[in-house]
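Good morning,

Attaching, inline, the backbone tokens for the sequence recovery test we're adding to the shared suite. The designed sequence is right after.
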């Protein structure tokens, strides 16, 4: 259903992908046995966890938080020294914490990252910086657009896990709910700082949201 790219088997076969960040993500030979056990639990094992679903959620959320980190980096590069600099910095710091959490979850659950990270690196920064060049309102319009999509995305994942069996995903559900709340707060911060005054707000918002949805679709699969 999810295609060959979503299989956690790639954790072993695609070992080089693990090295994208640091040595701490390498799978040493002595760990292979536990990875093999994880493989056997794919698509629902004795512990009741749907490994394919878990991998897909962690992978796409890591990609999203990675893109958000780059987006706020772009905004900060343009507006960091202005009056909204501290506001952007606060949201950026929270995105960094989100990203770190998903990096840790990826290592612990042996989930490979999306192959599209280099694209989200560049695209996130360019969208952040580009909208910030429209002024404070442009940056905040971007924040509203992105955070609205991400909040909905987290809500959809929470709903899916609740329908499966919340007891099997206690930790992940806590993370998703906390981050959903943070993203909604970012969304509200954007509105409070004149997002709707941005030039071409409606078109800008729709365009960014289409891009976000495409990024989510691709990151779940590649
Ligand atoms: Fe986030
Ligand atoms: Fe956010």
């Amino acid at each position: 259903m999810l295609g060959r790219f979503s299989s956690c088997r790639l954790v072993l076969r695609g070992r080089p992908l693990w090295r994208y960040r640091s040595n701490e993500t390498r799978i040493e030979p002595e760990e292979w046995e536990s990875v093999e056990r994880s493989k056997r639990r794919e698509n629902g094992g004795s512990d009741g966890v749907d490994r394919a679903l878990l991998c897909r959620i962690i992978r796409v959320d890591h990609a999203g938080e990675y893109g958000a980190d780059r987006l706020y980096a772009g905004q900060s590069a343009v507006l960091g020294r202005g009056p909204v600099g501290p506001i952007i910095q606060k949201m950026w710091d929270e995105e960094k914490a989100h990203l770190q959490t998903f990096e840790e979850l990826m290592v612990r659950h042996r989930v490979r990252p999306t192959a599209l990270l280099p694209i989200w690196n560049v695209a996130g920064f360019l969208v952040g910086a580009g909208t910030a060049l429209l002024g404070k309102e442009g940056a905040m319009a971007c924040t509203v657009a992105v955070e609205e999509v991400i909040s909905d995305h987290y809500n959809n994942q929470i709903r899916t896990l609740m329908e499966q069996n919340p007891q099997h995903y206690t930790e992940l559900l806590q993370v998703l709910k906390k981050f959903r709340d943070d993203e909604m707060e970012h969304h509200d911060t954007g509105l409070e700082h004149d997002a709707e005054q941005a030039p071409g707000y409606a078109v800008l918002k729709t365009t960014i949201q289409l891009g976000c949805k495409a990024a989510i679709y691709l990151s779940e699969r590649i």
